[in-house]
Amino acid sequence: MEYADIIKFHGHSCPGLAIGFRLASAAMDALGAIRSDDEELFAVVESDACGVDALQCVSGCTFGKGNLVFRDYGKHAYSLFSRVRQQGVRVVFHGKGVPAELRSDRPAFASRIMAEQEDAILSVTRIPYEELQTARVRNSVVCVGCGESVMDTRVRETTNGLVCIPCAKELAVN
């Protein structure tokens, strides 16, 4: 997928999107992988920044398919695993090739990230393969509090019946 397509998906170009594109592309290249149609690949992302949109577009790993895991470490770092090859890589943005004074100019910063040599902005490390459980279909139940459907693994049991997490919190406050 081209960067222009990812900008359309995300809504704008920014340094975070450029970082995500470069990280995801480097990880895919390192694994010799092609975009995942199903769950051939899975990813672990360490931030919820703009770059995750690029990773989803480039790799095909998405929250909806269950092959994208978010770990809130606040880092521009992704681990990508290939079930086919039983291999994993971790890519990390270090940005050493980008002058500090350029970082306040967001368009220039994004352009520099896209133009810079890979080793000047990121590192790629082979990591041990670890299996992520494949996505499972869950049953839904109706919350007695709000009447909305909720996955059976996300309900709380009360004296009135099964409730969703927001309704359980509301009951606890009242």
Write up what this structure looks like:
The protein has 174 residues and is α+β, with helices and mostly antiparallel strands. It folds into 2 domains: 3-127, 60s Ribosomal Protein L30, Chain: A, CATH 3.30.1330.130; 140-173, no CATH class. 33% of the residues lie in helices and 22% in strands. It has 6 helices and 9 strands. The chain has helices at residues 3-10, 15-31, 51-59, 106-115, 118-121, 165-173; strands spanning 41-45, 68-70, 77-82, 87-93, 122-127, 140-142, 149-151, 156-158, 161-163. A 5-stranded mixed β-sheet has the order 2-1-3-4-5. Strands 6-7 form a two-stranded antiparallel sheet. The protein has a two-stranded antiparallel ribbon with strand order 8-9. Strand 1, helix 3 and strand 2 form a beta-alpha-beta unit.
The tally of domains stands at 2
Instruction: Report mean pLDDT, rounded to a whole number.
Output: 93
- Briefly, what CATH class of the largest domain? Alpha Beta
What proportion of the residues is helical, as a percent range? 25-40%
**What is the percentage of strand-forming residues?**
15-25%
CATH fold naming of the largest domain: 60s Ribosomal Protein L30, Chain: A
The quaternary structure here is single chain
Number of helical stretches of at least 4 residues = 6
| Biggest sheet, spatial arrangement of strands | 2-1-3-4-5
Structural class: alpha+beta
- How far apart are the termini? 50 Å
Radius of gyration: 20 Å
Largest sheet features: 5 strands, mixed
What is the overall silhouette? globular
Q: Segments where pLDDT lies below 50 for 5+ residues? A: none
